[in-house]
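User: Fold this, then the next.

Assistant: Folding the first:
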Amino acid sequence: MLVTMKEILKDAKEKKYAVGAFNVPNLESIQAVISAAEELQIPVIIQHAEVHENLISLQEIGPIMLDYAKRASVPVCVHLDHGASFDMCIQAIRLGFTSIMYDASAKSYEENFEETKEVVKIAHAAGVSVEAELGHIFTSSVGGGEGRGAVGAEDFASLDDCYTDPVTAKNFVEGTGVDALAISFGTTHGVYLTEPKLDLNRITEIKNEIDIPFVMHGGSGVSDEDFKTAIHNGITKINYYTYGAMAGGNKIKEMIENNENEKVFFHDLIAAGKEGIKEDVKKAMTVFADSIL
């Protein structure tokens, strides 16, 4: 069933679990994620990232996402991920998306605040939930396909300059009216090249200032233990894409290697890739929703 992000995250916040939010740039990804959620009987968020417009357009994939969400046996939110343009956000709302992320985190705080506030007014008038981002999520040079450009710790004088400040977060949330806030505490978009150094206490510090659903971007590559601590501290939505996409690719690679002297059909490769994504997504969901499974 199709629901808003606000509805899904309210339940997650109350029951202390996190909803997995998965980018689905093709039909098979949608099928894999919905199927995994239905098997586990847990809510899920499927997302289209603006940076994936080079793979498939919002106009093409959006109606398919919405159709699968409406027919699912579990609550499904259809979300625009990292919408960096006003036009893209309006397109998603008009298509029927129940949630959007307006990402102006690369701009000045003042611009992020004012632009997000305006988007919230429009989205809420249409019954659509809004996520925003405050701080800077690092982006790996390998597979960092969801963020707004490569940002590394070396781009800042200190980590405090890129991590989300608790008091600033309170002012931002109260002034803009966003339903969820993506916060920075050391995670990375893409493949982890080194072990992440997460400031998990920062989540608690921010929650002490403003108690709304918090979002972890760059969820791939984080240990199960760190995921659980982050969820305990206040994370209720976890974005996950890179490692799931890699799992699908590895399954296809394995099939080709195992059938070296046999004919390989395209539809069989697609089926194998979908199964690889589903297996990885299901493992991630099991960690995120551990408290309700």
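Now the next one, as you asked:
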Amino acid sequence: MRDSGGLSIGALADRTGLAVSAIRYYETQGLIHPWRNGGGQRRFQRADIRRLSFIMVARQFGVSLDQIGAELAKLPKTRAPGKADWARVSAAFRTELNARIDTLTKMRDTLDGCIGCGCLSLDVCALYNAGDKAAVRGKGPRYLMGDTSSQIDAVTRSDDT
């Protein structure tokens, strides 16, 4: 159920800290759904404060607008989402966020050693990739993404058979 008067876009911007242009952009992306009052002005539900807050936090974690939109689409549009609704969204993000946290932790821990080491020991360097053998696991810095030499060697051995 919509608030009788709803919030103006300016009031929503004040509450969330977002620029009016950002709110309009999220509207064009289908992430929030204002209505028009009798004078043609946009009006927003108070629940849109939480939706926009969710968008802001998810974007800080590098979540794409497509992913955010997919999760927000699961929330009810005819009423303000409740705790159970947000818990479902949270559960869906938990696995991805944990994977991102693991990746960031590995990157932090690995780069600490690499930045100052000068690669004096290529046998243990997390970035060294002789003959581009890590490419068998995919694109990008495979060792920093969590792949190990044994995983890469296993793929290479299975290709040789």
